[in-house]
Specification:
By secondary structure, this protein is mostly beta strands. It has one domain: Sandwich (Immunoglobulin-like), CATH 2.60.40. It has 1 helix and 10 strands; from the N terminus they run H-E-E-E-E-E-E-E-E-E-E. A hairpin with a 2-residue loop joins strand 6 and strand 7. The longest helix is centred in the first third of the chain and has 13 residues. The chain is globular and about 40 Å long.
Length: 152
């Protein structure tokens, strides 16, 4: 028989096991450990090393956004695939609103994708950036995602 406390814990676990929610809106401070800090070349310089779900298996890799935090309105991500694949890279603004970064077919090789926020729609905010691959099903491997902080 479930006790009241066990039932509450079970409900909390079920609720928290859903898809990752979008990151909080607003800016935050420069020492926020909730993001993975990268320089303008994509080198990791500190911060939350668990913030990005990265993959590097069987010749497929996806790296964190750089620079992060972004002090300009542009970020880049690198990926590599050993096979032709259909991928989608997008910002999840909230549970029903996405902004597409890239959506298309890539041939085997290494790629750097750059996103320019020319409308400043992400100024002073956090955004969750996802990559979906048809070749690598998210149910088999980690989902490829992480947070990007856009500073003014």
């Amino acid at each position: 028989m479930l006790t009241y406390i066990t039932l509450i814990a079970l409900v909390f676990c079920i609720i928290s096991c859903g898809d990752d929610p979008p990151p909080p809106g607003g800016g935050g401070n420069e020492t926020d450990p909730g993001i993975l800090f990268t320089d303008e070349f994509g080198n990791i310089t500190g911060g939350d090393t668990t913030d990005w779900c990265l993959n590097n298996m069987n010749g497929f890799s996806y790296g964190p956004a750089f620079p992060n935090p972004a002090t300009v309105n542009s970020i880049s991500v690198k990926m590599q695939t050993p096979v032709a694949d259909t991928i989608k890279i997008y910002f999840l603004r909230n549970n029903i609103d996405t902004v597409i970064f890239y959506d298309g077919i890539v041939n085997p090789g290494a790629y750097t994708f750059q996103y320019l926020d020319s409308m400043n729609q992400f100024a002073n905010s956090y955004q969750r950036l996802y990559l979906k691959s048809k070749h690598f099903a998210s149910s088999q491997y980690c989902r490829f995602y992480g947070d990007v902080k856009f500073e003014p």
